[in-house]
Amino acid sequence: MKITYGNLLSAFGLTLIATAAIAAPWKFGVMADTQWPNSPDNKNPNVAVNVISHLNQEFINKGVKFVVQVGDVTDGGSNPQLDLRATFAQDLYNAGIGFYPLRGNHESSKTGALEFQRVFPQTGAITAKAGINNQTPTPFVNPSVLSTPTNGTGTFSVGGNFVNEPGYEGLTYSFDVDNARFVLADTWTSPAGASKTYLNQGDVDWVGSRLCYAGSKAGCDRPANTHAFSFAHKHLISENHNDNLFASTPDSSPTTTYPLTNSFMKNLADNGVRYHIGGHDHMHNRAIVTSPDGASKVQNIITASNSYKFYIPGSQGAWASRENMIAQELFTVGYYIFNVDGPKVTVDYYASPNGCNGDCDETTDVIPYTFDKHETFGYSLNGKEVVVSQGGSYALTDSTAKAIANGEAGYLGTSAAILSGTNSSTGKDYRGRVLTKTVDTGWTPAASDHASDKMTLWGMTDSLATNFTNLSNANLHYLYVVPNPTRTDNYALSMSYDDAKFKSGVFALSVIDQNGNAQIASAGNDNTSVPMFVNGPYSSSYPLGSYGVDTASKTAWAVIDHASDFAVAPLVVNDVSAQISAKASGFLYNRATKLYTGNLTLTNTGASINTPVAVALSGLTANVTLANALGQYNGAPYTTITNSGLAAGGSITIAVSFSNPSNSKINFTPVTFQE
């Protein structure tokens, strides 16, 4: 995993793995409402099968293990519509991808419950069929439906440890995949005909029993240091609708609703659930929701539309004050890829314009299906989260202490700090509420040739907001924009390094790509910047592109404008000795410092060099030490001679000092290289 400056950058588990760090990276997808009532082109007859087909291909291309759909799988909830939706999961099954849906209010009846259990047996209505995908009993075949998929494979299992809420078998259920637990809650009429629209205390208690850690109370079996995700059709707080998981409005019958909400959110927050995920509102929306009693906070993710309609946020009551808005994007068709890598979860939100350029109820399908990444966010079980308001400082510190305490092995013991930077975002949601940022950190053990552990940063990019030029008429003043999902404000990042490893090579704070390759962190900047090396600590006066090493504090730092994976990693450098002439002066002994000090002059006899240049002293006399060495290059001590390059014909003189206890003659051969 060497780096070159300038180069840009299964088997399914049946039970939870007890230690998150040993799970191999894997992915799952999330999609939302797929209603479509009127389809003159017959592409989406009561079920958005054309949308589904496009999303299926996206999920296949992204390599997910399974897909969760958070309700409203049909428009009318009839048996033929449910059969049609089940049939159009076939492309996923043919690719070996599991499918785990929920009901929504569009299939909320007793009849819908019974047919849902029949056509999605993998959700566990029949215990023996739980987790076994591609069991659709009678595929729906209608010649008028374009490209009805056919079964091209046998059954296969995804996940294990399926548990159902009594009376809601296959409707409210939980299951485990690798190092994560998934809890899906149905809020509708039961298969026995018991009417229901919201969660009750029994549902809340059941959800809590599936989220709790083993040993915390009787019946809990979820291992420590594992992920858990909560799903339902509705939300903790909605944006367009007033109803939520508990009542017709979050403030309805507060003597009943508030304790229920508090209990549900406590179950999530106390058991490390970072995200509650639902549909219903046909927009992409993220917010930190605080429980009515103020004791629990959970991020509420409303998923983008996968249907014919695209809602605008409505007026809300006092409950809106319990939301801290993070992101909101209207009028898109979208989906989500959750990347689970040991203790880390990274979520990528992909979106396409809806084709009607605003708020509309489509009939003919005009969606272009041109999906781009619009947002990336995430968290880690071994990191921390800091909420940064607009105008607030990004300053934070973190270390691998939590990872080590969690029982993860292989860490060097690295610390990191954001030294400077301010949230300059000005984004607002549709109702004018400012968007905040959640900055998260996570850790991975050091690669064998790195001098630090790897840190991941999420949440530094510009807040995702719908682009309106005039809110007085959203339809006429909406502009679809593909955002930059990697660009951040300028900030300075510092990481500690292992001194012994650092001195064994040429190292710098680096950005690490998904393949383990790296480049100097400042070279990954989104804006044009000139790399400038500093041998010393960071200063707030240093511009974007600056990077350096502070040997006194044993830290490497950089001024950057992107968030990614970072580590202090070795460089592969370019030897430019052939075009650099070197001349050393005599070395004089300084009785005060007890060092021999002199000058080294280097002249560029070739083309201009535009990046920092360093010199290594090859063949340095035995028992003589270069006092201001930064590390080693091919076994020889080196130091930097220029911080930003050397023009053609240019010369530079640097001071060099040596410890020479034997008072030997100091000999060496200068070897210059370009970082």
Number of strands: 43
Beta-strand content bin? 25-35%
**Tally the helices: what do you get?**
8
Mean pLDDT: 91
**Biggest sheet, spatial arrangement of strands:** 9-10-11-12-13-15-14-16
Instruction: Please describe the biggest sheet, giving its number of strands, its sense, and whether it closes into a barrel.
Output: 8 strands, mixed
Structural class: mainly beta
CATH architecture of the largest domain: 4-Layer Sandwich
CATH topology of the largest domain: Purple Acid Phosphatase, chain A, domain 2
What name goes with the CATH superfamily of the largest domain?
A: Metallo-dependent phosphatases
From the structure above, extract its key features:
Purple Acid Phosphatase, chain A, domain 2, seven-stranded mixed beta sheet, disordered N terminus, 675 residues, mainly beta, eight-stranded mixed beta sheet, Immunoglobulin-like
